[in-house]
């Protein structure tokens, strides 16, 4: 049984973010990914497990090797969720700009 993990905790780790960036370019095996890091293959496998459990990555068995792929649907889901906050912050910064302009005008 899979343990579901929080996707934001998973992507908070810099190594996992680097793995995501590598897999955004091309599917890779754990050994191929491990070559990009100064760590053991087992450590990379643990990161892959975490990212797979939160559905950021998918696995594809090709012969004796497992290839990891970025789950673009999950990444779009994350992006959509974050977009709400981006819009909210943008609106608040626009309001702050208006207040600062009024203060500047009243000072003159």
TrEMBL record:
Instruction: Note the PROSITE patterns from the entry.
Output: HTH_ARSR_2
Q: Where is the HTH arsR-type domain?
A: 1-90
Organism encoding this protein? Nibribacter koreensis
Q: Which PANTHER family match?
A: TRANSCRIPTIONAL REGULATORY PROTEIN
The identity of this protein, by name, is Metalloregulator ArsR/SmtB family transcription factor
In terms of Gene3D superfamilies, this protein maps to: Winged helix-like DNA-binding domain superfamily/Winged helix DNA-binding domain
Q: Name one Pfam family in it.
A: HTH_20
């Amino acid at each position: 049984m899979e343990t579901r993990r929080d996707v934001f905790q998973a992507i908070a780790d810099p190594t996992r973010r680097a793995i995501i960036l590598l897999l955004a370019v091309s599917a890779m095996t754990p050994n191929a990914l491990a070559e990009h890091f100064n760590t053991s293959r087992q450590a990379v496998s643990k990161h892959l497990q975490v990212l797979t459990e939160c559905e950021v990555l998918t696995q594809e068995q090709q012969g004796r090797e497992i290839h990891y792929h970025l789950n673009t649907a999950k990444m779009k889901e994350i992006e959509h969720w974050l977009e709400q906050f981006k819009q909210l912050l943008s609106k608040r910064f626009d309001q702050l700009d208006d207040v600062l302009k009024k203060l500047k005008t009243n000072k003159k």
